């Protein structure tokens, strides 16, 4: 595998781990793999890549276990084989990242395979962490208790809160769901810190 491909896998691996950490998943030893170099990732997956097998691992959040699978198989072979990976562990969700290069129309897809929610993405979707951009403010998904408290303090209903789509890149990063209340914290040297709220739909 060439150095560019290994660099892509290394970058994707770090970004995916950061995403699940930000979603509140338990990372355990995987946290130490954030920021691995292409050479280190090459050693980590050498046997898998040589044999065209996917690299995969499990992250958990309470009772929810998610399998993350990286595959360099061609798209047709990879999509047909997903079922065998989700069946190997008792998981409820699966993120399947492929490096095989299908048509652009197949870059993102959501399926349910053997009762497992599977999100399928081309690796280019995970080359950067959008939350690290200097112009992106901090977003926080509030708990139901916090949501009720904020609505009471502001004396508003959900219908009066400005909306934000679940397809927004930051909402996708945090896996926000319709009905989630999002707190956005903006800071500036002149105006200080300000809080804004958006309702996900």
Automatic annotation (TrEMBL):
The keyword Transcription applies. The keyword rRNA-binding does not apply. Keywords: Transcription. It is found in: Nucleus. One of its GO terms (cellular component) is RNA polymerase I complex. Pfam families: RNA_pol_Rpb5_C. GO terms for biological process: transcription by RNA polymerase II; transcription elongation by RNA polymerase I; tRNA transcription by RNA polymerase III. Residues 128-200 form the RNA polymerase subunit H/Rpb5 C-terminal domain. One of its GO terms (molecular function) is DNA-directed RNA polymerase activity. It comes from the Eukaryota. Belongs to the archaeal Rpo5/eukaryotic RPB5 RNA polymerase subunit family. This is RNA polymerase Rpb5, C-terminal domain. The lineage of its organism: Eukaryota, Metamonada, Diplomonadida, Hexamitidae, Giardiinae.
